Each structure stands twice: as C-alpha cells, then as structure tokens.
Amino acid sequence: MKKIGFLSFGHWTPSPHSQTRSAADSLLQAIDLAVAAEELGADGAYFRVHHFARQHASPFPLLAAVGARTSRIEIGTGVIDMRYENPLYMAEDAGAADLISGGRLQLGISRGSPEQAIDGWRLFGYRPPEGGTDADMARAHTEVLLEVLKGEGIAQPHPRPMFANPPGLLRLEPHSEGLRDRIWWGSGSNATAVWAAGLGMNLQSSTLKDDESGEPLHVQQRKQIEAYREAWRAAGHAREPRVSVSRSIFALVDDRDRAYFGQERDSEDHVGYIDAETRSIFGRSYAAEPDVLVKQLAADEAVAAADTLLLTVPNQLGVDYNAHVVESILTHVAPELGWR
Predict the structure, then answer these.
(1) Under CATH, what is the fold of the domain 3-337?
(2) Which of 7, 109, 174, 319 is the most exposed place for a label (fewest CB within 10 A)?
(3) The whole model's pTM is what?
C-alpha cells in the first residue's frame, strides 16, 4: 500500500492558452482540485511555495481553506523555503491551519531552491549568521521551529496582562498537538537527509537531487532513503518515519492525454548545474499507456522505497483535467502495482 497525492506548483499566467490566468485562479482552483482529489480517493494535496513568482507563495491561507473544504485528505507543502520564514510566526500560522483541518497538515520545509530574485530572503529581513551561509540560516530557522512546535513555554508572562495567564512560561498559541511529528524536510543530498533524520523530520525527495554518484536518479534516491532510515534508527526515535518522492506521471488513456503528453520526450534523467557549484540530476517524466507505466514504475527503486508518492500536476490545464490525471493513476496504475 502507498499513499498517493498530488503536488501543484500553482503556476499562473495571463496567457489565453492557460486555464489559470491569475493568482486568484491559482488559489481557488487549488482548493477545488483538493476537494476533487479527496472525492476520488487520493491521500494528499500538496503545494509548492515560491516567492517573487507567479506561483503559490505564502501557503497558510490556502492550506487553511483546503482544510475547511475537505475532511480526510492530507494537506501539505513541498516545500516552504525556510530562508524566508520567521519560525515563531510560522508556528502560529501552521498551528491554526492544522487545527482547522483537524490535524491533517503535513508540512514540507527546506532550504529552498534557485529562485526568481537574487537573495530574495534579504528583502524579507533575514541575513545569514556571521561566517555562515543562507543554508545555515535555513537550518537554524528550522531548529527554532521544531523547538517551539513542542508546545513548551518560552515567554515570560507580563506582570499585568490584559487577560489572566496560565501558570509558568507562555507558549505560542494556537498549539496543535502532534504537528511536530508531521514536519518533513525536502532533502537534495544524502547529508541533509541524515541531518533531517537526526532531528526527527520525515523525508521528502523530489525530482531534483545533487548528483552524488553519477547513477540514475531513482537509484541515488533509493540510497538516500536508506541512509535516512539508517540515521533514523541510530537516533532512536520512537515512531516510524515517512518518506515521499515526487514524480511526473501521466497515464495515456484518452485523446486529451495523448495530445498533451503522447509525444513526451523527457523520458531520461538530465544532469545540469542549478548554480555555479552544484551539479544536479533531474528526474525523468513518465507518460505511457497504463500497462507500460506499471512496468516502468515497478523498476523505479525510489518509488518502491517510499511510502508516499506525490504526482506533480500541470495545474494550468485546469481542475477537471488534473483530477482526471490523478484518477487515471489511482484507477489504472496503482492497483496493478499493489498500491491500492
């Protein structure tokens, strides 16, 4: 069995060829797609976060709205760039969204990725520590977030408060019990996966990873997952961790699918540089008839190793078509692989 959800980047453009032409379209359609996915039996609705771009940005209003419109499906991010975040304010927002959803939030966070703006996090008021990097800053913000999500008191009560305080130090409110165990780290390397395991975070691995061995992406990801789980066991955490991988997968079951993806040429991994120093491997897309997809996905070692699969969806093709994309995988592919 495997949990299957969708991951939307929330792209929008005023182009007449797009069905998602404004930020309002992107947000409202995201809610509708989450509702449709829940009705189809999908397990998760996840959203990417990018700043200074025509995509989803601040995620918590969207997550809260999805939580209010659904009742079962997991609601998450993949990922929030922690270079931009005030961890205490984020903990309050996350606690509120989690309570609205009834404890269904699965919060994916990370250092982030190459972005639209140069050092955009500086405009949000953040600076790396002396002698440190923006990645160090992201990890420091993360450690603060994890600490305050425990729900312990951190603030001295005012001697003359507006309202009566409970005894002891004050914690951030609203606090949502259990959210600390539903934080995921989006890891692009083996080392950060091991670091995440030590802190008790679940693992998200996407279609982009540091090329650390020259092997195919799915093999490198499988080894990353194994290193993560070994580190988790060594840390002695009481619960079992969760691991997700994301993939672009399209079952060609009707003329629309064949028109959009029947000529898909991105059927191999690609290697490139996301910055001047980082050699990365970009994962292939899958687009084929269901019986072919079953064979291809059965050979994907990372998909096999993960408990959760996130389907990246082309959100600009509209809610109805993206619901069809999810339904096709749930109906024609997942049962044949034993995921349903």
Answers:
(1) TIM Barrel (3.20.20)
(2) 174
(3) 0.95
